[in-house]
Amino acid sequence: MTDTLPPGDLGQTLPDGLWLTVGCAFGLETSQAVEAILQVAPVAEPGVQLAHERWETNAAHHGYVDGYGNRCERFTLPAGTSQVNYSAEVLVAQPVDIADYGLRETAVAELPDAALSFVLPSRFCLPDELGTEAWERFGDLEPGWARVQAVVDFVHHHLEWLAGSSNPWTTAADAFRSGQGVCRDYAHLAISFCRALNIPARYVFGYIPTIGVPPPAEAMDFAAWFEVFLDGAWHTFDARNNTPRVGRVVVGRGRDAVDVALITSFGALTLTDFTVVAEPTFGLAGGG
User: Fold this and answer.
1) Cα angle, residue 132 at apex, residues 239 and 113 outer, rounded to 5°
2) Which of the 8 DSSP states describes residue 47?
3) pTM
């Protein structure tokens, strides 16, 4: 296995999957001791194997799993400066995004109970406010994968990616009206349209390496995309990139960005430094 895949080779991953190194580093500063929750560790799920996971920090911390199955790390940050580093090697068994245009939508009467909350409005996803727009644009399309893809295509072209164009309080409706946003806004808007059409959709947050695509102009960062419930299972869609990607590693899932915040602090906390890593791990093919 080589340490990268050239453009055009998205389908040429090896049968034993893809090893990735993922992680991040935070510089943090506070005037008094603060409790904080970080969500940066990959979720434990079928098809994902973690190896050599480690935290490096001077702060006391412990892990727990939230109500959505996301791994959270709870910190007691002392007054002054703290450094928090996280890294892991991850084997992704099926690293390539797959499209299946034959999948159908599931009628609301047939949805499992657990999926119903992902049809309802949430803090940033507003199917009630955007419902008329959704039905006018997508209501006459054939239900199924193709209709969700039409939502993705519209959001991808409607929004202009612009750093700093939104803030922590920007909703899907705000982004729709402004025509600008960052990856979380693309996900929130697409989710809102899907929910308005009675298609369960949930927010996803994690790492995406730049494999098989030109590097982005912006620095490596965490990414947001979404999943839709079709034909009895959840499937990946990405309105920001709108192209198959290799090596997605999920950190968290929820109704919207509220449920998978990168840092939640219970007190004033300043981020002084921040880096993210997501890249193929050279020399770990075949089992690490």
Assistant:
1) 70
2) T
3) 0.91
